[in-house]
Design brief:
Strand content: 25-35%
CATH topology of the largest domain: Immunoglobulin-like
Number of strands: 18
Radius of gyration: 24 Å
Distance between the termini: 93 Å
CATH architecture of the largest domain: Sandwich
Number of helices: 12
CATH superfamily of the largest domain: Immunoglobulins
CATH class of the largest domain: Mainly Beta
Order of helices and strands: HHHHHHHHEEEEHEEHEEHEEEEEEEEEHE
Length: 374
């Protein structure tokens, strides 16, 4: 009898009334609008790259991406073992990395494959408790609110730390062992003007930005790296400094690359690659994978080991050297770094239709004019 009571109580504690993102917007209008513009709002249903990678991966590993990309879904076990599919009718499935889910995190446990997120236990038919970083939070008709140190130190590490596939191959690595969420929040959730909630009873005039700006934001792209050009006779040296607290390449679908040109008058007389930036192996930054047969694979779920990797670790500088004969006074050297959200190998494998995934976006560009030799 005691054992039955324990399991019944445990079931009740884990059964909370789900608050949809739209429900949160009724009181947190500013934050909701920011969230809607963010990549956290992207899901299996409205993000082509993620959906097509997940569909390909389902041939082997099913939709185990759901624990981070669709965390509010009730049928996580079924999604993970292939007995269930993402449900376009379920609001929980469509809410993406939902407000309610993130603000229920009670603890993040470190683990080898990926970190495990432990949610607070909620009592059915009672107002749920929401966690956050606010001190002296305001009560709501919909929920109670509690300050938690998790939201300044560990909350991001639940999904943004690392991920290994079923073959124990590292496919995502964003946070070092000594890094916590403070670094993430400082860049990706800075304080911005605006009320935390509509009534503003506590007269808070700022809140943490929930746009989660990153590679899709021009100003964030510009801040992430520094470039320098040096010329030594016929040798051009380009220093690329990764200013970010994480590696230059995190998402394995992406390609970041250097375009280096020498212009004389109106004519470009030299470039570090012809048609494909990937041909310059020192200037193309990416992570490739190999399958069980040692041949290249695009879908991370199928990877048995890493193939070609060119990356720059956090806060590190890489020096690239190019030999260009016949440089003259007045020649203008331009170094530009670009990012493509889905590298060419992804285009073919996934048959991507969204042109924005294929379009190079500028990170930073600098010029250097050759002066008279002393």
């Amino acid at each position: 009898m005691k054992k039955f009571f324990f399991f019944a109580l445990f079931s009740i504690l884990l059964s909370a009334n789900y608050l949809t993102n739209k429900s949160c917007s009724e009181c947190h209008e500013n934050i909701y609008d920011e969230f809607q513009s963010s990549m956290h709002s992207k899901t299996y249903f409205n993000d082509e790259l993620h959906r097509k990678v997940a569909q390909k991966a389902a041939i082997q590993d099913n939709y185990d991406c759901s624990t981070c990309h669709m965390p509010s879904a009730k049928n996580q076990k079924g999604l993970g073992d292939g007995t269930a599919k993402p449900n376009s009718i379920s609001q929980r499935d469509k809410d993406g990395i939902s407000c309610f889910y993130c603000h229920q995190i009670a603890y993040v446990k470190k683990a080898h494959i990926k970190n495990k997120i432990i949610l607070t236990r909620q009592i059915e038919d009672y107002k749920p408790t929401i966690y956050g970083s606010l001190k002296d939070p305001q009560e709501s008709d919909k929920h109670t609110m509690t300050h938690s140190p998790i939201y300044t130190k560990y909350v991001c590490s639940g999904c943004h730390s690392h991920k290994r596939n079923s073959h124990d191959t590292l496919i995502f690595d964003a946070m070092g062992d000594n890094m916590d969420s403070k670094e993430c929040i400082k860049c990706h959730m800075p304080l911005v003007d605006g009320k935390v909630e509509n009534m503003d009873k506590k007269s808070r005039k700022q809140h943490h930005d929930h746009s989660f700006n990153g590679i899709h934001d021009m100003s964030m792209r510009h801040k992430g790296i520094d470039l320098k050009i040096k010329v030594f006779g016929k040798r051009i040296e380009v220093d690329i400094t990764n200013k970010m607290p994480h590696p230059l390449i995190i998402q394995v679908a992406r390609l970041k690359y250097l375009e280096l040109t020498v212009r004389r008058g109106k004519k470009i007389i030299w470039r570090n690659y012809k048609n494909n930036p990937g041909n310059d192996r020192q200037g193309a930054f990416k992570i490739d994978f190999l399958g069980i047969d040692g041949k290249p694979v695009v879908i991370p779920a199928f990877a048995y080991k890493r193939g070609f990797v060119n990356n720059i670790e956090a806060k590190k500088t890489k020096k690239l050297n190019y030999v260009v004969s016949g440089l003259k006074k007045g020649d203008i050297i331009t170094a530009s770094m670009f990012v493509i959200l889905a590298k060419p190998s992804c285009w073919k494998t996934l048959n991507l239709q969204n042109s924005n995934l294929k379009k190079p976006m500028l990170l930073k560009s600098i010029t250097y004019t050759i002066k008279a030799k002393k």
